[in-house]
Design goal:
Belongs to the D-alanine--D-alanine ligase family. The protein is of the alpha+beta class and 322 residues long. The chain folds into three domains: 87 residues, 3-Layer(aba) Sandwich (Rossmann fold); 143 residues, ATP-grasp fold, B domain (D-amino Acid Aminotransferase, Chain A, domain 1), CATH 3.30.470; 65 residues, ATP-grasp fold, A domain (Dna Ligase, domain 1, 2-Layer Sandwich). It has twelve helices and 13 strands. The strands form three sheets. Strands 8, 9, 10, 11, 12 and 13 form a six-stranded antiparallel sheet that branches. Strands 4-7-5-6 form a four-stranded antiparallel sheet, covered by helices on one side. A hairpin with a 5-residue loop joins strand 12 and strand 13. Helix 2 crosses helix 12. The longest helix is centred in the first third of the chain and has 17 residues. The radius of gyration is 20 Å and the shape is globular. 45% of the residues are buried.
Length: 322
């Protein structure tokens, strides 16, 4: 039996019910093709169309999670797979649940003394127009407004005028019950993937992102070729290594495993890096950044998919109660 066959029947979870369904289907299609091309008995599985209990009944032995956002990257699917006893790619239940929530992620990083931009949290139905109007005074302008639990820059607005804050908050609140208003860091936008877990986790090359007019939104992430991705990143000497070290620390603090990607802003004036968020189920599309960084490290898309699948696991368990 080959190593690929020894992995057993594999479900590539894709699609799902989140606002990122379209991107997830693209990620999943790429992963499925890569795994099948290497002899893995892999099959597409859309949790929006099939009940997860089918995984057990149909004899699936592992799951590659190519879902993004809610109901895929937030600990819910991870918890279901734990109950089914099916090892899966990426972080476990607790880390996934924390990382999907940008505010909770910030709280953990701040508690550990790690740098992340200042923020104001507005809870839907609980904030007043006066509180919204006060945000620019607390964070300065420009500032960023976004849903606390969405990815792919969905619902994100860069606000440059006091008069536009309320509309930006409404846009974000349409996607989530919590709205994150965040200090804007002017400078280089970079991202750094990590592979592995604990002491064995290793950062991949940093990618510097240069988007049209500095607007790295949903459209420019996935559906245009106008955004530049620079790897090697071209940062001043020593900066890439410093960012990789910071990202690795931030990844380990959250208990991430398998893989992930952390987004960072570098202050143009001070060159200080600021942590934005951890993606625990990054994109695997033709525009995605983890495969791009892995390729710069000599890891092909196909090899990356197989490596991630081989690392599929369940959360560490304590002694069973009798």
């Amino acid at each position: 039996m080959s190593a690929a066959q020894a992995l057993g029947k594999v479900a590539v979870l894709m699609g799902g019910r989140s606002a990122e369904r379209e991107v997830s289907l693209m990620s999943g299609a790429g992963v499925l093709k890569a795994l099948q091309g290497q002899g893995v008995n892999a099959h597409a599985f859309d949790p929006a169309e099939r009940d997860l209990s089918e995984l057990k009944r149909k004899g699936f032995k592992r799951a590659f999670i190519a879902l993004h956002g809610r109901f895929g990257e937030d600990g819910t699917v991870q918890g279901a797979l734990e109950l089914l006893g099916i090892p899966y790619t990426g972080s476990g239940v607790m880390t996934s649940a924390i990382a999907i929530d940008k505010v909770m992620t910030k709280r953990v990083w701040l508690a550990e003394g790690l740098p992340t931009p200042r923020y104001v949290l507005l809870r839907k139905g609980a904030y007043t127009s006066e509180q919204v109007a006060a945000v620019p005074g607390e964070l300065g302008l420009p500032l960023i407004v976004k849903p606390a639990r969405e990815g792919s820059s969905l619902g994100l607005t860069k606000v440059t005028r006091d008069a536009d804050v309320a509309e930006a908050v409404e846009r974000a609140a349409a996607l989530d019950c919590d709205v994150l208003c965040e200090q804007f860091i002017a400078g280089d936008e970079v991202t750094c993937p990590v592979l592995g877990a604990g002491d064995d986790a290793k950062p991949l090359p940093v990618i510097r992102i240069v988007a049209p007019e500095g607007n790295y939104d949903y459209q420019n992430k996935y559906f245009t070729d106008d955004t530049q991705y620079l790897v090697p990143c071209g940062l001043p000497e020593g900066e890439e290594a410093a960012i990789q070290a910071l990202v690795l620390q931030a990844y380990r603090v959250l208990g991430a495993r398998g893989w992930g990607r952390i987004d960072v802003m570098i202050d143009a004036a001070t060159r200080k890096p600021w942590l934005l968020e951890l993606n625990t189920s990054p994109g695997m599309t033709g525009h995605s950044l983890v495969p791009m960084s892995a390729a710069a490290a000599g890891i092909s898309y196909e090899a990356l998919c197989l490596q991630l699948l081989e690392g599929a696991a369940l959360d560490p368990q304590g002694a069973a109660k009798r």
